C-alpha cells in the first residue's frame, strides 16, 4: 500500500509524532486552512495524543489518498474542504443520513474499519445565523449564492428554517446544480433557481444574502492555464473566469493589474445590487479574509453582516466531537471543545 505522505503535495508531515492523527483534505489546505489550529488546540487542551495535518491532494490522487488513510488505523478522520466535498463521497464506506440527503461531506470519522462521511457545514451555519440575527427565520426570503458542497448543506438547513412560508433563491455560476437543488428543496419552502450574474433590480425583497461560493476567498488558485484569484470579486456581480497570470511571485498583485477592468465592473454591479436590497442581512461563509469585499460593501451601505468565522468554529466543534468520540478517545461533549477552539481564533 502506498503511504499517505507519498500521495500529498505538501511534504514533511510527521504522522508518527502522535498516537493518532486527523487530516484536512483539500486542494491546498496547507495555505491557510483554520481547522488544524482549531483541532490541535482541542487535542492539547483535552490531553489527547492527536494532531491534525493539512493534506494538499491533487484530484488524480484523491482515491488513492482516501484508501491509504483508511488503511492506516491511526487515522481517526478529520475535515474535507474545497473542492472535494462531493467528489470524495465514492471513496467513503458510508454517509450519515444528513450527509446522504445533502450530497456532500465536510467531515470524516473512523468507525472500526469504515470511513464515515458527515456534514457539519449546514448545522454550523444555521446555528450562527440564528444566534446573531436574534429572530425567528420562519417565512423569510433568502438569496443563497454557490451550491457546491458547503452551499448545498447550508441551503438544506436554511430551507428547513424558513419553512413553507419562506422563499429561497439559489444562484450558481453553473446553473444545473442550482436547478437540481431548488427542485429537491421545494418540498420544504418556495424555491427558485436564478441566473448568475444576478439580474439588476432583482432581489429587493430579500431578508438574507448568503455567499457560499469561493468568490471573495483570499488564497490564489491555479490550473493548467496559470494562476487566478477570487479575492477581488464579490458573488453579486459579473466575474471573468478566463483571466490568468503566470505562476510566481506576487500573484495577487499581478492578477489585480490584469483584471482591473473586470474587477471594476464587478465592484460597480455589486454595490448597485446591495443598494437595492433594502435592509438585507449579509452573511459570507468565507473566513479568509475575515471581511470579504462583499461584506465591506454591505457594511459601507449600513447592512448587518456576518463572516464565516463563527460558522467555521461551530462546524469544527461538531466534527471534532464526532471524530474523537467515535475513536473512543472521550465522551461526546461539545462545550469544552468550543471553549478551547474559541481561544485560538
TrEMBL record:
SUPFAM superfamilies: Aminoacid dehydrogenase-like, N-terminal domain, NAD(P)-binding Rossmann-fold domains. Pfam families: Shikimate_dh_N. Coiled coil: none annotated. The keyword Nucleotide-binding does not apply. Signal peptide: none annotated. One of its GO terms (biological process) is aromatic amino acid family biosynthetic process. Pathway: Metabolic intermediate biosynthesis; chorismate biosynthesis; chorismate from D-erythrose 4-phosphate and phosphoenolpyruvate: step 4/7. Residues 31-108 form the Shikimate dehydrogenase substrate binding N-terminal domain. The keyword Cell membrane does not apply. One of its GO terms (molecular function) is NADP binding. One of its GO terms (cellular component) is cytosol. InterPro entries: Aminoacid_DH-like_N_sf, NAD(P)-bd_dom_sf, Shikimate_DH-bd_N, Shikimate_DH_fam. Keywords: Amino-acid biosynthesis, Aromatic amino acid biosynthesis, Oxidoreductase. This is Shikimate dehydrogenase substrate binding domain protein. It comes from Desulfatibacillum aliphaticivorans.
Amino acid at each position: 500500500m502506498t503511504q499517505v505522505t507519498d500521495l500529498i503535495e505538501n511534504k514533511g508531515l510527521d504522522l508518527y509524532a502522535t498516537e493518532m492523527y486527523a487530516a484536512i483534505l483539500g486542494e491546498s489546505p496547507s495555505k491557510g486552512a483554520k481547522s488544524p489550529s482549531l483541532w490541535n488546540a482541542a487535542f492539547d487542551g483535552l490531553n489527547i495524543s492527536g494532531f491534525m495535518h493539512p493534506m494538499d491532494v491533487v484530484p488524480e490522487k484523491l482515491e488513492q489518498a482516501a484508501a491509504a488513510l483508511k488503511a492506516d488505523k491511526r487515522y481517526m478522520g478529520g475535515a474535507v474542504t474545497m473542492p472535494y466535498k462531493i467528489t470524495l463521497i465514492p471513496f467513503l464506506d458510508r454517509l450519515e443520513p444528513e450527509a446522504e440527503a445533502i450530497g456532500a461531506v465536510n467531515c470524516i470519522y473512523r468507525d472500526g474499519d469504515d470511513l464515515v462521511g458527515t456534514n457539519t457545514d449546514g448545522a454550523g451555519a444555521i446555528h450562527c445565523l440564528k444566534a446573531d440575527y436574534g429572530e425567528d427565520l420562519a417565512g423569510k426570503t433568502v438569496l443563497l449564492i454557490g451550491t457546491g458542497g458547503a452551499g448545498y448543506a447550508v441551503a438544506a438547513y436554511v430551507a428547513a428554517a424558513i419553512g413553507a412560508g419562506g422563499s429561497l433563491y439559489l444562484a450558481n455560476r453553473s446553473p444545473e446544480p442550482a436547478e437540481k437543488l431548488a427542485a429537491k428543496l421545494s418540498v420544504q419552502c418556495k424555491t427558485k433557481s436564478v441566473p448568475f450574474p444576478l439580474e439588476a433590480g432583482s432581489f429587493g425583497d430579500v431578508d438574507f444574502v448568503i455567499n457560499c461560493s469561493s468568490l471573495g476567498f483570499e488564497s490564489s488558485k491555479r490550473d493548467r492555464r496559470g494562476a487566478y484569484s477570487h479575492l477581488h470579486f464579490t458573488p453579486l456581480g459579473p466575474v471573468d473566469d478566463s483571466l490568468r497570470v503566470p505562476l510566481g511571485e506576487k500573484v495577487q498583485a499581478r492578477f489585480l493589474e490584469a483584471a482591473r477592468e473586470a474587477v471594476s465592473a464587478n465592484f460597480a454591479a455589486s454595490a448597485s445590487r446591495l443598494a437595492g436590497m433594502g435592509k438585507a442581512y449579509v452573511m459570507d461563509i468565507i473566513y479568509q479574509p475575515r471581511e470579504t469585499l462583499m461584506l465591506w460593501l454591505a457594511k459601507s451601505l449600513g447592512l448587518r453582516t456576518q463572516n464565516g468565522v463563527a460558522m467555521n468554529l461551530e462546524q469544527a466543534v461538531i466534527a471534532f466531537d464526532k471524530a474523537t468520540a467515535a475513536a473512543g478517545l472521550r465522551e461526546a461533549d461539545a462545550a469544552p471543545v468550543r471553549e478551547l477552539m474559541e481561544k485560538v481564533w
